[in-house]
Amino acid sequence: MVQELLVAIVAALCAGALYVAAGARVVKQYERGVLFRLGRVTGSVRQPGFNLVIPFADRLHKVNMQIVTLPVPAQEGITRDNVTVRVDAVVYFRVVDAVSALVKVEDYKFAVSQMAQTSLRSIIGKSDLDDLLSNREQLNQGLELMIDSPAVGWGVQVDRVEIKDVSLPDTMKRSMARQAEADRERRARIINADAEFQASKKLAEAAQQMASTPAALQLRLLQTIVAVAAEKNSTLVLPFPVELLRFLERAQPPAPNGAAGPGPTGRPDAVHPDGAVREDTAALRHPPG
After folding, report:
1. What does the pLDDT look like over 105-116, one tens digit per residue?
2. Closest C-alpha to 32, from 112, 110, 107, 94
3. pTM exceeds 0.85, yes or no
4. 161: which strand partners?
5. Helices (H) and strands (E) in the chain — how many of each?
6. End-to-end CA distance of the chain
7. What is the pLDDT of residues 182-228, one digit of tens each?
8. Contact predicate 57/37, CB 8 Å
9. Euclidean distance between CA atoms 58 and 35, whole angstroms
């Protein structure tokens, strides 16, 4: 009798252990458990840790509460200014209501993916090419709002949406490159013209200053000669201004009586055999001013 009682107790303990083992569930820290009892949601959301359910009657579904990174496949569309582009994006979202994510939508990840693709195509059609290339922050906010509005009813919250890349046709890339090159050339010409304008002002001021002091022009000429000679050129072109000839002519002392004096050009005049003094041929061709 005692032996039979011990066997029954051991059998009951084994059955209880099997029952507990069959109904034991462990929910991880980043998960939440939703309990379905005979097909209906029962009780509150199970928190992380050890949870016990009724075997064969309860089903515990675990929902990941981590942020999900969902890449949106590249969508091809036509912008508002009739340019064909290909845009891809990425969506960051997480589940905030585990019950709604399981009950109200069949597959919340697939639903968010399809909604993101649809919203991205809509954004492409409503935007200009310049907005897609330079005003992405505002487009990201609009895209996030379009995806988050229906996702709230699914127990999903969209944290952030980012447009990753905008692919353009090769013809459009070449056109934009030519436009950028033309714009840079325009700026370069404007800068050169402004530099020439400023340089002309300075040259005009320098010319006025040298006009009042003729010796400054001669000093500038000598500086130019020194700069040219420093290059070790085999040929040196030296400009000889006519004003310098006139200056030398005025500085020449008068010739004594009976001697051949210098002509207007600074060279001695030729004396004719009959005693008449004649001027140099070159001086007659080029009379002094």
Report:
1. 988 999 999 999
2. 94
3. no
4. 91
5. 9, 10
6. 156
7. 999 999 999 999 999 999 988 888 888 777 777 777 787 777 777 77
8. yes
9. 7
Give me the amino acid identity at 259. A
Predicted local distance difference test score (pLDDT) of residue 149 = 87
DSSP states along 196-248: HHHHHHHHHHHHHHHHH-HHHHHHHHHHHHHHHHTT--S-------HHHHHHH
Q: Give the CA distances from residue 93 to residues 64, 112, 116, in Å, rounded to whole numbers and listed in that order.
A: 11, 9, 11
Two structure tokens written together for 57: 């009657």
Q: How far apart are CA 142 and CA 133, in angstroms?
A: 15
Residue indicated by tokens 């840079």: 184
Q: Counting beta carbons within 10 angstroms of the beta carbon of residue 155, is it exposed (0 to 12), middle (13 to 18) or buried (19 or more)?
A: buried
Question: CB count, 10 Å around CB of 108?
Answer: 20
- Sheet containing 58-64: which strands, arranged edge to edge? 40-41, 31-37, 58-64
